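Posting this for the archive.
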Amino acid sequence: MLEKKFSQLIAGFRGHPDLGRLNHGLEKEALRIDKHGYLSKKPHPSALGSSLTHPCITTDFSEAQLELVTKVHTSIESCMQEMEEIHRFVYDVLDDELLWPSSMPCMLRGEKSIPLADYGKSNIGQFKRVYRQGLALRYGKYMQTISGLHYNFSLPKTLWAHYAELLGVDDTMDFRNQCYLGLIRNVRRYTWLLVYLFGTSPAVCGSFLAGRAHDLEPFDGESFYLPHATSLRMGPLGYQSVVQGRHYLSFNTLVDYRESMLPLLSEPYSQYEELGLQSSNGEFQQLSLSPLQIEAESYTPIRPKPKAKCSLRPLLALEKHGIEYVEVRCLDLNPFFSTGIDRTTLYFLDAFLLFALLIPSPRDSQERWEEDQRNQTIVVERGRDPNVELMVDGENCSLTRSGRPILDVVIQIAGLLDEVDKGSTHVDAVALQIEKLQDPSKTPSARLLQQMATWEKSYYRTIETLSKQHRDNLRSQQLPATRRQHYRELAMQSHREQHELENAETSSFEHYLEDFMQFERSE
């Protein structure tokens, strides 16, 4: 069914107006740092609202780690505009603190200096906090201070109907699931390319490495790096799990995905059993004893996501309601942009994800997954090495020769999108990535190292300088009074919602946790 010639699909989509109405959303993590350059010890600012119930300003692992979330948008311009507005409002509230614009963290003063996020006394608030206690216990707090940017993507319903018609099939939930899973398999296969093009973490602050074994080289007295690295965040020193790294997840069907995820979510893991579900004083310190406490702990470069408003745990929601959208998770924060990403990158991602949806998607396997993992590791550590080679379908191939055929097809998709938009933004975005492929010095990872050398500053001092520039630029473009009032009202409403939630609680946390962890229940 999905093997229809690519050229026929291109022709079938040409001029369809809903190509200009793809669904986009952004989620960006960012550390708050104090005036001395260390992670802030202040609680989440009350003026930003409740981190539990606010729709667009919350926290991630730490009380000092903001997570800024846009609504779903049908244009990249409006999506970026909202993210910029959220940043301006945050800086309206922050006093002498900065938002750290890079994925690898600021200066750290030890695990005890990293405060866990606090979501209040409701059951869901306790659940979120215990989950983070489990992460700290399993991986250490330093790893959790690494930040990233997630891109959420989906097709509008009318475009799904048109796609099904082109293929001569019914537009069913199973059809959409199959297509989204094909997209995910292709993105996993080409994650190395996204890491090369957009990786922006080739160096780290020396404080991040305290007491850790590593093979990085000293850049100066305060920084460490690898000369040809792209994204240390996506490598062994980054947001990774050794336990998960041994376990193959299949995305061939939703049944396969469920069956490969279930052992991670339900079977005890000896090391976590030894740690115990509760501490010596009887307080919960993990949600479960399994390799994954919940689905969110799975560190895959892309995830299938169910609809947001659903009381079922994600694995059950996917099974019952299908895949609503995909979440791309392999993007570093780009410290050269105040929002961590720019419009050009998003225009490329739309073309790339549509490419991943439309081209044939070979079934995955243990062997293919291992090849994908190897390629990602190679590009993380040596992606800009002109002699680097990848393994593609069992054969060695240079990175440039591997990437160019992919981008040559992506640019065709970009042309389709530009025909509808009556511009050249998508094609221009892909052309820029082709330049990076041909010239590694144009990649953001190379640019960051070049900036450090030009300024003769350490990783920390370079990122600090960029963060101050972003703060000044954002504050120079203040929000209109009506938009500022909008965010203030959202903050006040979120506090009211948290208060109401806590007052309405009737069951114990133990019962709440037991109920959530069930894999067989209905809404």
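The CA atoms of residues 14 and 470 lie 39 Å apart. The first strand starts at residue 23 and ends at 33.
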